[in-house]
Here is the input.
Amino acid sequence: MFVKRIVLLIIVIAMSEFPTLAQTDVITGMWRPLARNEDGSGLDGDYAGLPLSAAGRLRAQSWAPENFDVPEFVCRPHAWDFSVEAGAAQMRMTPEIDDPTQSVVAYHGRLSMREQETTIWMDGRPRPPDYAIHTWSGFATGEWDGDVLVETVTHLKENYIRRWGPMRSDDATVRIRYKRLNNNYLRATVIIYDPVYMAEPYIRTSLIWVLDPNLILPPYPCEEATESVVEHGSVPHYLPGKSLLPAQNRNENDEFGTPYEARLGGPETMYPEYIKKMQPFPRPNVKKGAAAERGQ
Here is the structure.
């Protein structure tokens, strides 16, 4: 009897080392973005709701639209954390299984837009030292918080979190929480911790993914070509106080009449209490009709 109990205990412990079927199924599959309304005021250069530090604001204000035409950046991928909330791509998530143990070694993700990829290591391997190379995908590990897969990414290159200037630095740590909803939906909550460009962590859940087994992920071949007048080695930018983005113009307005001060961003603009603080701010005349569509 004692031997049987010992054997049963060993089996239970061994089984606890393997992820459950429900866990391995959380993100595996082909996913398409669920259509949603565009957020924001519609003005490029509007940083309201972003917890920018002084350095982050200066970095954002120095950005010029011609930055996308820099030859060296023609094939720059969207950041994974940007793409899972932007909705311009299809996504594939596949597990890597260790055959002898049938445990999950990693999840491999691919997004069709600009061909961004991520590898979420689940085998407990150590994180590289701080001086290790930084890449577009970074180094990602995963762990389970109940039925939520938590991806933690470091060793990232600087990249944009919006397509009109705001950036996260190469010192940022990105955490993404994936949760399956009602079997056919996936929610990805992005949390960015950046000691350089952000004064507080930035949290955003803006997109729901829909399971689509028949989805075909298109290729995204990209080669550098002469597509603009921006020369190799040049860095288009604005000097402090010289940004030409519409939201950085005090006299420009949007359909909500957002005060200029709010468009500068900062931690306090994330919270509902800021609405009361905005009331005495001067407001430009409200623009009639919806703002023009633009990228995120």
User: Anything to note?
Assistant: The mean pLDDT is 84. DSSP finds six helices and twelve strands in the chain.
